Fold these 2 entries.
Entry 1:
Amino acid sequence: MTGDTHYDLEILAELAEGLLDAATALQVREHLAICDPCGESLADLAAVREMLSGTPTPAMPMGVALRIDRALAAEAESLRGGGVGLVEAPAWDDIMRDAPWETETPSLPEPEPVRLGVVGDDGTVVPVTPARRRRAATRRRWAMPAAAAGVAAAVIGATVVTTGILSASGGPDTNPMIGVQADAAPPKYQLTDSNWNYTDQELSGSLLGYIGPVNAGGTTESSKIDQCVRQVAAKVGTAPFAVDQGFYNGQEANVMVFWHNVSKNQVLVHVVGPECDQVREPALARWK
Amino acid sequence: MNSPPETPPAADQQAGRTAVSDADLLNRHIAGDPQAFSEIVKRHRDRMWAVALRTLGDPDEAADAVQDAFVSAYRKAESFRGEAAVTTWLHRIVVNACLDRMRRKSVRPVADDELIEAAERETPVPDQTTEREVSMEVSSALKLLPADQRAALVLVDMMGYSVEDAAQVLQVPSGTVKSRCARGRAKLVPILSHLRNRSDLSRVSSAKGAELRDG
């Protein structure tokens, strides 16, 4: 293969991966030695590899981490028999169907409140109780609508505090929740984490559908956002009743909602960035 | 950047805390320790996030997939068999959750000429290509690949795992991983070549090219 004929990128990529048989590989290499365009193609392939490996891999955003912690706390709660009941499982059977560890699955309708297992000599874990469980429970609703998320946050709040699952904020592990409860009188507001990407228009309309109903007295908090809430609250002169962690025009943002006039259903909306910087002029909106 | 280590360095450095292996943590979780699983999550969430984000190319989808995967792992901990590393097992669950999402969205394979058209359409050719722009373009280019090639490239080229580790995660032979990577890279060349021409990333390993050429 010489002259005007060239190898295509796929062959060259296979050469680079050592996938070609010896005879073909030799042939291609001989061609490469005299063919500049093919040499450039090979360089292009290497460049693609470098570009891929040079692409930075960002850390998980705190909003996502907290959301996962909450989902796991809800899961722990439902296993304990409490059953938050708001959280619905995705189609685990579909997700896991190709997995090799999926064994025969006799369907046992009842959840087991406590799971026990023993560790075999080879380090594998042998469940003592019947292995498969909660087939019946796997079809509950999973994707929590924003309205339900707030309630779930309130319901599982106690668990979160006691187990320290929220310690994702990164302190030493010994006592992750230290200081949070000791704090005298934190402002009472509902903290939700919708991850919704708000637009300016949405923030001028009705917010209830995005943030969800306020659960009286239910507050969860993480110290950083709490600090920021205090800061903004000091500026406004009153405490917000709802705070939602989401995005504003694609940027990470906290939406704080203050009552402006309850009877007129008017709320004041502050939007701040992760560093508590104001990212949108405070403006009025409707709650319902 | 090689194979997924069983215990990331950060976990070792935690003062006053002897490093507990992932497998131990998983066993503790199964035995009812309420802290154990969140420790596993803390150790691995960044990598799981990276895999999901790169595979799906969309933060919302990635967040859903990673959450599904961790909850799934939480429930299925007892079905973990000790012969694989916990990290491999977790990666597998995350990758499966991602592939499942892609299947549900039924992303159809795209023909090569469509790829190039899409690349030209979607690339406004800025004067200076910043790292962020490159990253976004790499993301959108990856989205144009078939799911299996994308998953292989994310693990091997982007996450830096060995072909063997990727093969374990994807549960296919190493040769299959290599050929998926090869085909995926070949498809990416026309899409990304314009980036290479004007960015610093063009420090192409011509040394490597020469090495290959000369055998």
Entry 2:
Amino acid sequence: MNLHAILAIYRFEMARTWRTVVQSIVSPVISTSLYFVVFGSAIGSRISEIDGISYGAFIVPGLVMLSLLTQSISNASFGIYFPKFTGTIYELLSAPVSYVEIVVSYVGAAASKSIILGLIILLTSSLFVPLRIEHPLWMILFLILTAVTFSLFGFIIGIWADNFEKLQVVPMLIITPLTFLGGSFYSVNMLPPFWRTVTLFNPVVYLISGFRWSFYGKADVAIGISLAVTALFLAIFLAIVAWMFKTGYRLKN
Amino acid sequence: MPTIISIKKLSKTYASGLHALRNIDLDIRRGEIFALLGPNGAGKTTLISTICGIVRPSAGSVSVDGHDIVADYRAARSMIGLVPQELTTDAFESVWATVSFSRGLFGKSPNPAHIEKVLRDLSLWDKKDQRIRTLSGGMKRRLLIAKALSHEPRVLFLDEPTAGVDVNLRRDMWQLVRVLRDSGVTIILTTHYIEEAEEMADRVGVISNGEIILVENKAELMHKLGKKKLSLLLKQPLHHVPPALAGYQLKLSDDGNELIYTYDTQGERTGIVRLLDDLNQAGIRFKDLRTSESSLEDIFVNLVRDRQ
């Protein structure tokens, strides 16, 4: 195991976060605060409680998950795409580093950044609403599992993308809508039966539901199913990454 | 000298169907400076990229100090430093950070003293805290060399190292390459500047159309394939070469003031004495003469042209 290489890449990636602290951390925190102001005030004044939880507190897990998913993808995709774009990828490909080490370092850094961000958003939320976390270990587990899984997804996008537009397409056009429609701001049980059934095809529902359960002990779907869906995502993304490295897809000629 | 890089039957065919390398056999000797010459698209960069692990070979094998580049890639790659042709850098990083990163990437523990030495040797020490984007092109080129040297490689690939570099910096780089060679580093360089190969290389390889068409000790190559020219500056201009001298295949300059005789340095007799006698008998007098030797560039151009 080339630990020096893993550390070098990890530090390099984390250093970019501190260099771009406004874009990486301040901007998502401001966006989340705005969600609280808009949704908490406008909608929260009309919906007092959902499943016995105040509306403001109810949306916290969904908001954290929204940032976690988009930032994990964005961090990891940019991390591997940028060396491809600038040409510095030659150094990575010619170094004595295994594919596992490359993935661990890039995905590890991207996941670390989004977990830090998720925790900052939680802290920010606590300024607006009273928070309680019934299952803190499960909360941490979901946080880490989701961050790692979607950082892997971002890594795949970063290898696949051959321009900056493609880098933005998946997070903007797929992940964000799925998160909004996945119960971030409402309970799936509030929907009419038809739309409720349709919503269950949205994989993000299971992530948000499981995460919310770790806070309030209430979920739209069973916790075991949420965990299984997250693990399924992880397995699928790992398989795709393994295939990419095996074939050299868009990395090696 | 023992072999440090051994290339056997190496071929590379890209997905587009382009045969970039064809059945290449080549041994690089430990501690030498090997210049790989070839026209654009000949396969120089593909060959280097394959040895370094950036391009997957289609067939054949390469070993670096006995380590196969596929089966034992860690050991093989850790011995190699690569300076790419393009100025590819992390614009927003500092000089110190990027060179330290390269050392870590190649599995070496931090060694600030070594990084400092490398930066000082390349006259980059006073720029160590500057962002790369603020450096000039020449400095970026030196920075790429610093990154390649950060992990103390035993083999250094320089892909067009002095492209776009001014004359003074080019000479500094040549000096640095010699110092590295003297310290035991094997150097393989590709270049368009024949002067560069002529100045530095111990051996020269010529690649054309994906095939190695010649590998030779530089001095022997110039000796074997080199031709000399004898130029005679005439007292009186000639309109044409007299028929009596037709056997010498002389060339007459456009203004008729100079006769040029080309002869083979390998020949037992150069024919110069007989030519001078015959000129005397033909009543042709000259006021001065000079000889010149083929440059590596002449040899290279002739080789590639003959091949095509």
